[in-house]
Amino acid sequence: MIAKSEKMDALAENIVEQHAIKGRSLWQDAMARFVRNKAAVVSVVVLALITILSFVGPLFAPWDYETIDWGTMGNAATLGYPSIATGHYFGTDDLGRDIFARTLQGTQISLTVGFLGAAVAVVVGTLYGAISGYVGGTTDNIMMRIVDLLLSVPYMFVLILLLVVFGRSLQMLFVGIGLFAWMDMARIVRGQTLSIKNKEFIEAAIASGVGSFTIIMRHVVPNLLGVVIVYASLLVPSLILTESFISFLGLGVQEPLTSWGALINEGAKTMQYGVIWQLGFPLAFFIVGLFCFFFIGDGLRDALDPKDR
Amino acid sequence: MSKADDNTVLQVNDLNVSFDTPDGRVDAVRGVNLHINRGECLGIVGESGSGKSQTFMTAMGLLANNGIATGDVLFHGKSILGMPVQQLNKIRGKYMTMIFQDPLTSLTPHMTVLDQMTEVLKLHTDVRGEDAARKSLEWLERVRISDAKQRLEQYPHELSGGMRQRVMIAMSMLCEPELLIADEPTTALDVTVQAEILDLMDELKKDSNTAIALITHDMGVVARMCDRIQVMKDGVYVEEGTADDIFYSPQHDYTKMLLDAMPRIDQPDKATNRKLKEYDEKGRDQEFLTVDDVRVEFDIKINEGWWPKRVPLKAVDGVTFTLRPGETLGIVGESGCGKSTLARAVLQLIPPTAGAVSWLGSPLSGLNRKELNKKRKDLQIVFQDPLASLDPRMTIADSIMEPLQTFRPDMSRKEMKAKVAKIMERVGLPQHMINRYPHELSGGQNQRVGIARAMIMEPKLVVCDEAVSALDVSIQAQIIELLMDLQEDFDLSLLFISHDLSVVREVSHRIMVLYLGRIVELADRHEIYKDPRHPYTKQLISAVPIPDPKLERSRKRIKLPGELPSPMDPTAKLRFMPSKIEANQLDYVPRLDEVKPGHYVAEHDELEKLIV
């Protein structure tokens, strides 16, 4: 009997060993899939270059973004063309300011708006959605009806109103964009939370006596990360677009600061006067930047969707 | 040993199946040979991942896109492997059909039974219209569905699991195929339903001379059904032979291990190397866990008339029992009988609608969440699905540590780690796995993690909710053994919930049988199997297949007519007392009588009366 049982244990152990698959974590898996997506990888590289350039570039530029080159002022079409000799690599605008420095400065602002806005939306939206979904019942109902109510307000109108009433400033722009961007996030997160909260590991945590808030922070939110990251990567470009639109209307950042939208606005006004570089360079940055964001977002969505293996 | 001849329906020669995955090539099937003759039932047994399903999926041309198959599959001597889909479609569905484990997902949800059945006829025969309907009805009657005519107009979701599987069988038999491939056909069904489906398949084999390939992990089912058996492991047949050969003189170690590890309802203390210690009442504090008339009701919305009505569904309907320290109480019953709900109500994970649960003399029910969380230290639960019960984003050490973080915030991280290491060793998890994630471990290992998490606070009561049901038999035996060891070490009380009566017999001191939220019988583990009193208990016990062909085929089964009534039906509790329904005493509640000391049986009519 003893001999038999030893044999059986050995056999059983054997089976256990064989079933243990040498594992990769979910993230490694996603990473491998992401790397296989050429467009996304190229986009990451390009976007990194743009970001680095926008912060490092001004150090090497002969002109800064607000200094006026009195020599070219008013003669942008004849003297302010892009040239290495004059130090205006991208040319100048009608006031004689260096487009290269201004484009980089605008890139900084636009990226900041995109990332900071998305970060605020992610933090607020995730917490709001996770709490609403996890607590459920009446609380969920009330919290979600508030979101519905806010979503039914035409936000562009309110945003413009805010900027007009409280004056144009970068802070106001952040507040305005942040106020609205989190709501979609909250809805998506709530839906995901509803499916997570019925999983057995949540019940196991409740049975272990873990408090509700700890469960949300320790078990619910980490399991939402996939969705949140994908949504955030698509939110960044849409916020940049919103900011550009607002700036295009002339309500965005305050001169002499600028942004992609503001630069494109100025460039568009003067494009028939033979100074196409005033529109072309900022527009190129804008388009390339957004393309990169969308490709990265797509890549992340494919990589983090476990069904797509 | 039979050889392939003219009578052979399907022959597989040296079949290899491999899959291209991101991890490299996986060889699922490696050089398999088999043949099935007319009127023969071939059993393919093996544990999960052995490649038993893939063999037949490939034969049916259902190989996944990243799969590569080599070798030969012959249907009546004609090669069908790699045949173009259009030609293959003329053979599959007509001459060879397949039924799957989950009958709900294999029926189209938006089509009535009649539509689905006539579609099959339209594709493969020229039976149309009235004739097709008549033929469908004929087959539904042959698979003995109650009210067959009415069922034709119903949708799959309106049928119970057993009825759906019957419809699947009727559909696959419509064209009177020569080969029926059944992939775990009864695994998702309750034992009593399983018994009926197996009987039905056996009859079809005899009446229509159909060849059946039965793929299963359950040695009991094989013992009952199969003429020849192939034992499969890691993509290879390790042993083949007649049923008698395999069961009475197994040659391969793996076959022996499978047979050894399989618990048997007629033999207690078999699957594991150790015996359950008999319960010793001496010196025990009797005030441990008392459950008094607990009821759990869920409100169900019914759309009748203008406003949806709310009707209570009685998931647990007045259950009373006590649990003594260091004792295991087994709770058995079929799906929907409220066993999991009862366990959750005991732990207050679902607040009971009425009744009281008292723990060490003080009430558990009615406490607020804070007070309850303090008590949770001593009350733990182990879940059915080991993978789903662990947070996929946490390492197993973090999962095990979680109760410590809650109840012992005074401990340093280092002390906690030491304690986790200790408990991991105790449940048989190697130390190097400490930083692994759940999806990197096997089912058995994950269940050990679940047990370690439940045990780390040294609780007094652990509820095991189908804790071994999702595991392969060999792993199941190990986990049962571990639970028994832990019980002795920590003087643990267990509520062991399972649908599998043979497993429950291995681990429990006393056994409680539930039927639609009510206790029908409660007795000592030996008593209840030797002297079952309630007709339902008798039926359950007789339905469990025994892995012993001679015994299994000569056993008489008790069949109670009719399907499981809906718990919404007010007369459901009188299912075993039709005399009271006849007497129009619809509010009568069957009493629980103590027929012998410690043996409780719910009131019922005589078995003979119920059968007619």
UniProtKB/TrEMBL annotation, chain B:
Pfam families for this protein: ABC_tran, oligo_HPY
Protein keywords: ATP-binding, Nucleotide-binding, Transport
SUPFAM superfamilies from the UniProt entry: P-loop containing nucleoside triphosphate hydrolases (SSF52540)
Domain ABC transporter: 10-259, 289-541
GO CC annotation: plasma membrane
Molecular function terms, GO-annotated: ATP binding; ATP hydrolysis activity
Domain of life the protein comes from: Bacteria
GO biological process: peptide transport; transmembrane transport
Membrane topology: Peripheral membrane protein
Family: Belongs to the ABC transporter superfamily.
Protein name (record): Oligopeptide transport ATP-binding protein OppD
